[in-house]
Task: inverse folding
């Protein structure tokens, strides 16, 4: 059975990704670590604990991590996901508490305790991962693979013309990750809008499931639905973290991917946080990332619906 640690800045789409992972019976989530990003850290932690509760399967331990990026000022996505990251909905009371251990140490300890078979999924800024790599690079190399919802494949940025939110929120941390020798897959934000956008009719299908899990998944994303309506005149929802989760859990859904050498920009004000991918191999360097550009939208929608059904 595949086993995972998930690092998340739990906002509304992270919450759905957590529901998916926790409700997929063929895998096990060993631990969840939280990081500041979409929302402030304490909200991310509360949102992840609520997601564990709503998933109604089992309870991985939760470890809280970094409350700000390595160097830059915090940037949040409150206008996209609400101040609490969950469309400012009220969360259920949850008995589970976070663990005492810091997420950085937890990431290291879980790696050390594994047989090299543990996989790591990152759904937010790379701050916790970079700190753990700096603290114990050898232990962190024990992760079999690191999958990140990160960057924008070969498409435009979603916070600047060329940068995607997770990369933009802590590029210096991402640089440390890309320069480590952990095998990395980046699932770009563009995969969630090209082919995997959830149209109004599909959201109605989810609404008809009418159970606490589907209701939670929809209600926490109300702010994002409203953001798409106001900003893009689009009726529906893009779910970058669930699309990334699907690419990890169901690799057969991947329709377009490639191996490349990539670096993240940390200096230029205009392109700060942009992942520069050497598509033409102009630098003649060994690939350091696999990039997933597209997954099968129908397969994604069917699986998401199945996982939200009780
Ligand atoms: C990423 O940023 C956040 O808004 C989402 O949770 C996702 O991880 C998309 O750019
Ligand atoms: Ca996220």
Result:
């Amino acid at each position: 059975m595949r086993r995972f640690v998930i690092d998340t800045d739990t906002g509304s789409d992270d919450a759905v990704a957590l529901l998916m992972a926790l409700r997929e019976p063929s895998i096990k989530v060993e631990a969840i670590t939280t990081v500041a990003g979409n929302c402030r850290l304490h909200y991310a932690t509360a949102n992840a604990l609520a997601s564990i509760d709503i998933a109604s399967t089992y309870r991985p331990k939760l470890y809280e991590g970094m409350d700000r990026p390595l160097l830059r000022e915090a940037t949040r996505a409150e206008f996209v996901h609400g101040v609490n990251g969950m469309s400012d909905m009220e969360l259920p009371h949850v008995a589970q508490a976070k663990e005492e251990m810091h997420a950085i140490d937890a990431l290291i300890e879980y790696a050390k305790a594994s047989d090299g078979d543990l996989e790591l999924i990152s759904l937010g800024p790379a701050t916790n991962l970079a700190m753990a790599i700096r603290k114990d690079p050898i232990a962190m190399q024990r992760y079999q693979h690191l999958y990140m919802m990160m960057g924008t494949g070969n498409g435009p940025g979603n916070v600047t013309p060329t940068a995607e939110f997770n990369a933009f929120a802590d590029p210096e941390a991402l640089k440390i990750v890309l320069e480590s020798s952990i095998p990395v897959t980046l699932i770009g934000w563009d995969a969630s809008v090209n082919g995997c956008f959830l149209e109004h009719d599909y959201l109605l299908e989810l609404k008809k499931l009418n159970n606490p899990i589907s209701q939670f998944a929809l209600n926490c994303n109300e702010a994002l639905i409203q953001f798409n309506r106001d900003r893009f005149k689009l009726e529906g929802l893009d779910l970058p973290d669930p699309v990334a989760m699907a690419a990890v859990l169901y690799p057969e859904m991947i329709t377009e991917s490639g191996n490349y050498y990539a670096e993240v920009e940390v200096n230029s004000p205009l392109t700060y946080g942009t992942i520069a991918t050497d598509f033409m191999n102009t630098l003649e360097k060994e690939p350091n990332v696999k990039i997933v550009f597209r997954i099968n939208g129908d397969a994604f929608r069917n699986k998401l619906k199945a996982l939200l059904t009780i």
About this structure: The mean pLDDT is 97. The pocket of beta-D-ribofuranose (ligand 1) is lined by residues 11, 13-14, 38, 77, 80, 123-124, 149, 158, 164-166, 189, 240-241 (CB under 6 Å). The longest strand covers residues 27-34.
